[in-house]
Amino acid sequence: MKRSFLLFNFFILLIIILSSCKQDENSDSTDVKNALSPLEENSGSTDVETAFSPKGIPAGSNTTYNINLKMNSSEIFEVEANIDIVNDSKDTWNELVFYLIPNIFSEKAPQALTIQEIKMDGEKVKYTLNEDTLKIQLKSGLVSNGETSVEILYDFTIPEKGLRFTKNNGNFYLAQFYPMLATYRNHRWNKEEYRFQGETYHTDFSDFYVTYHLPEGYTLVSTSPNDSYPSSTQGTLQASQVKEFFIAILQNPSVIEKEVNDTTIRIFGFDQEKELIQEITELAADALTYFEKTIGLYPHDQLDIILDGMSMEYPGVVTAHSINDIALDPDPLKSTILHELAHQWFYGVISNDPYHEAWLDEGFAGFATGLYAYSRPNKTVPYENLYKMIERLKPLPVNLSLDEYDSSAYIYDKTNVMLWKLFEKRGGLEEAERFLKTYYDEYLFKEVNSQEFIKFTKNYFNLKDDSVFDEWLK
Ligand SMILES: [Zn+2]
Q: Beta strand 312-314 with 219-222: parallel, antiparallel or unpaired?
């Protein structure tokens, strides 16, 4: 997600970038991409001591989603979700806990979300739905490593003024539209209350099988690489090892496609000037090339950028047009796209809990965007200006939960600055690039938290104590 008061800083970065934007066609990531398999996680890095072993935070639950989505001509959506679940924790579960975010917007939507029925093993089961929390009672406990599946039938409409889950300019944005199983840790379901600021849902990497039916006149864009443009009105979509599955149903976009290495970038424009859409295409291609070369492989075959709605990242898809309902001018729009694009690595590949550890994706997205800007020829990292960004902040750490802050400046700005500070006297930009590549190699498709980041960083720099983290990590 992007936040408005970052715009000034990104605008400065963008000037640096655009003044020396030249695409590097010589990325060496192509072969690696062909070899990437979700099952083959990192094979260890040569940049850190061989004794170091990264440890991802276990999700506690393991889920596969089979979703059948039908939209009718009255704009009512019917969903049949079959969800296969494995208890990956050591506890026995007596209930299952899901996020069902469309219910948050029921009062605003033309027709509220309605659950028709929930079945397990062919029998109806009891459930409760409060706000975005769906709890399903289990008739008998699900033991550690036990498997079960749940069938949930429901329908909904989409409000004009939702948040991510919204209808905008005749386009439908189905963000978090299905029941998403929460993670399970510390002997409890890790499900917090919905908030309108920040991302309050945390899910594990999962596989998705989605079938859809649409009325005539729409085209579908999704997390899956199977959605060619223009899409047919019905089809099957699949995505492996993604944190969530996003669908946009669009009317009459103007589309530019560009091949970069072996990724197809698709820009879906609406009322923008053709020249701007072309500039965005070139910028996205340049940034994708840089991030793949510097950090690591982009994990999808397709990168879709939709120039409509709220600025936000989803696996394989970025939406960018407005912040707080205010349309962005071309330069802030471009800088926002860079930020959301960086999330494909920090959120999309390296996971973190966005409620309790939001700094790990928001701060790193800002940091990676800075790397891109400062890596242009003859540019250096403006450390003094960076420090000015956080001068007025209270002495709070960056790794508190969302409900503990009254400003997101800690998560975004202070993290970004403190990450740069690590490198000011430890190798600067080049070392920062090496650091991110090593971090990516170690934590590809894993979840990181503050402790794991500290462990990694201490090992990377061979630090003897935790003093470099005192100012910013609790
Ligand atoms: Zn963000």
A: unpaired
Strand order in the sheet with 127-130: 127-130, 133-142, 93-99, 180-181
Q: Tell me if the pTM is above 0.85.
A: yes
Structural domains of the chain in order of their starting residue, each with its CATH number: 1-58+253-474 (1.10.390.10), 61-204 (2.60.40.1730)
Task: Report in angstroms the alpha-carbon separations of 92 from 125, 143, 181.
Answer: 18, 4, 16
Bridge-based pairing state of the strands 247-250 and 254-260: unpaired
The model's pLDDT over 424-436, given as tens digits with 9 standing for 90+, comes to: 999 999 999 999 9
What are the structure tokens assigned to 469, written together?
Answer: 């983290």
CA 340–ligand 1 middle distance (angstroms): 6
If you measure from the C-alpha of residue 203 to the centroid of ligand 1, how many angstroms do you get, rounded to a whole number?
Answer: 17
Residue type at 217? G
Distance 462 CA to ligand 1 centre (A): 30
CA–centroid distance, residue 116 to ligand 1 (Å): 35
Interval between CA 333 and ligand 1 midpoint (Å): 13
Separation of 186 CA from ligand 1 center, angstroms? 27
Q: What's phi and psi for 105, nearest 5 deg?
A: -100, 10
